[in-house]
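Expect sequence, tokenised fold; for instance:
***
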Amino acid sequence: MAGCAAALSSFFFEYHTPRIVLIRSRKVGLMNRGVQLIILAYVIGWVFVWQKGYQISDSVISSVTTKMKGVALTNTSDLGPRIWDVADYVVPAQQENAVFVMTNIIATLNQRQGTCAEYPDPETVCTSDDNCIPGSTDVHGNGVATGKCVDFNDHVKTCEVMAWCPVEDDTYVPRPAFLKAAENFTMLIKNHIWYRKFNFTKRNILPKTNASYLRSCIYDAETDPFCPIFRLGQIVESAGHSFQQMAVEGGIMGIQINWGCNLDLSASHCLPKYSFLRLDGQDSDSKVSPGYNFRFAKYYKDENGTEVRTLIKAYGIRFDIIVFGKAGKFDIIPTMINIGSGLALFGVATVLCDMVVLYLMKKRLYYREKKYKYVEDYNQVIDPFQTSQKK
């Protein structure tokens, strides 16, 4: 209890005030200047030069549109000679900050509503009608079972279904890719940006660009880094992948546009930087459900007025356009805040040197005696002059 009372008395009834002590020591002096130099380098080099602590910043607001160019010729036993243009292989025609280019297909022609044998798998193979439950459906199937077991071909029987017939066979993906010529298709990216805080706008088609230049330029990181037209094969190759391999089962590519701008300089210095990466995780060891695909159908009517459709399972590459960036401009408020913070950091040098002097050096008791001076309350000190007068 006595210790607690003494601690409380010390806490409430003692006051600490700084005392300046000049210590003439080479070791301590060099350490103090060394710490101050490190702090000064941090404040100037990191805070002001690298992080631009004298600026206020704003994040980019962006809009993106794309336009594809390119045609391809295919000739297969199912479709015959066929020209594919933008309206065929860009599905859908417009997406937000993205574009899908079809590179491979499995087409099921002339499907009609009716009954037919389901595609064989462990759930649909049968030997008699008893194996088929009327009205049942399979989440992986193509229709609703009628309850009959019918011939799928000369070797196997499957349950009959009400569906779009004939049912799709997507067992084998065409190799090489059906639209392997898509490697040479081009994409024009039009990107407008706005830094609201600074009311600064710009687009990636630079002011000096003219129509003849746009008709002939192709982006190249070394020779033409500001051309907004990209060859699809080059995008994939820049990310370290093969376009022809990716085209077979599809995938997702990211096109990154970085608008990092220092608005203390002229607007001509604010330029886009492009980079590319694959986003669908093909660097992993997993081969389950690879690539990118979806289905869509084209409907029409035959000469009898019966509704007919062509079902297409489309494999392709989706290009996601990712725009990011930050702009900065000089402002007095962050400048003064960072200067004040830097000056406050200089106190670290004093604290560190005090710890070394008072606790680590051989003469720490001597320095501690010089550092601290204990003074009693003035009212409790006996004044010799007053005492002599009383006598």
The mean pLDDT is 88. The chain has two domains: 17-54+333-390, 59-118+167-329. The longest helix spans residues 26-50.
